[in-house]
Write a structure and sequence with these properties.
The chain is α/β, with parallel strands linked by helices. The chain has 11 helices and 17 strands. It folds into 2 domains: about 190 residues, Quinone Oxidoreductase, Chain A, domain 1 (Alpha-Beta Complex), CATH 3.90.180.10; about 130 residues, 3-Layer(aba) Sandwich (Rossmann fold). About 25% of the residues lie in helices and about 25% in strands. Strands 3, 4, 5, 8, 9, 16 and 17 form a 7-stranded mixed beta sheet that branches. The protein has a 6-stranded parallel beta sheet with strand order 12-11-10-13-14-15, covered by helices on one side. Strands 1-2 form a two-stranded antiparallel sheet. β10, α5 and β11 form a beta-alpha-beta unit. α4 packs across α5 and α4 packs across α10. The longest helix is centred in the C-terminal third of the chain and has 14 residues. It starts with a strand and ends in a 5-residue tail after the last strand.
Amino acid sequence: MLTKAYGAHAADQPIVAMDIERREPGPHDVAIDIAFCGVCHSDLHTVRSEWAGTLYPCVPGHEIVGRVRAVGPDVTKFKVGDTVGVGCMVDSCQHCAPCAEGLEQYCETGFAGTYNSPTPDAPGHTLGGYAQSITVDDKFVLKISHPQDQLAAVAPLLCAGITTYSPLRHWNVGPGKKVGIVGIGGLGHMGVKLAHAMGAHVVAFTTSESKRQDALDLGADEVVVSRNRDEMKAHTGSFDFILNTVAASHNLDAFTALLKRDGTLCLVGVPEHPHPTPNIAALIFKRRAIAGSLIGGIAETQEMLDFCAEKGIVADIEMIAADEIDAAYERMQKSDVKYRFVIDNATMG
């Protein structure tokens, strides 16, 4: 089935309108008419081949919200008209230990990404949510229960939301815990909202004084300008957990020094160049840890969506039309967005 989409034919080519092929629903498939798709920095990296291995044509997008158009005969969890979401994964091996535990993001043979992963479907690799429709195995489709007028702002939860929710849950963030969120961007603003909703004492870290009030408005209890040594020093040895959302290479020692004994600094951004080697003594003498976390499994993503619906949490977004994607990419590189672009897929018609 042909569908309208937006993507790139090469790394040095702009995002343009194109027709792509979607498979008709198989026995376990859900066909979705896409209403909104968030724009993630991973989309930009992939389209422009800043990460190795981009396959063209490349249609990005893994923060998808839409409505079910059709279901296969063996689908029982979804029906036509349901509001649903699709995140960063559309398949996994389904038989390794991580998959059995609901941790498909750590599939031992590698999960199939929503775009740029091998697939039997034309053109031989997955094509994402910058499109009018998508067909997905029902195991990787999520139920959305937010009000209809919030659906555009729900889309970024499918990546930015789960990327921050999963580590917060894994490290048991909640009442009585002091938690830091480094970076107030697409990921960080969700981290602040979620940690606040979980009941933690939340400290937001930013390099920019101008973001202080923004971070407080998002739910931070305190804000630290990380370039201010006195502000940083005042929090030495006091954090249970720090979630670092910054994808640029930087010195991690400034943040590990803020951890309590047994505290953890968790990284969710992959820098273009490696971080400087951390001070190992600072880890050894306080039994501190530097860890990482990758999105979340399907069950946990559903848990996150339900939690956000219950707490009234959505992303802060700026809506764009499909023909504004390139301009949005340019603004993203300048951090000129509060805090996530979302495409109105109706503009692809």
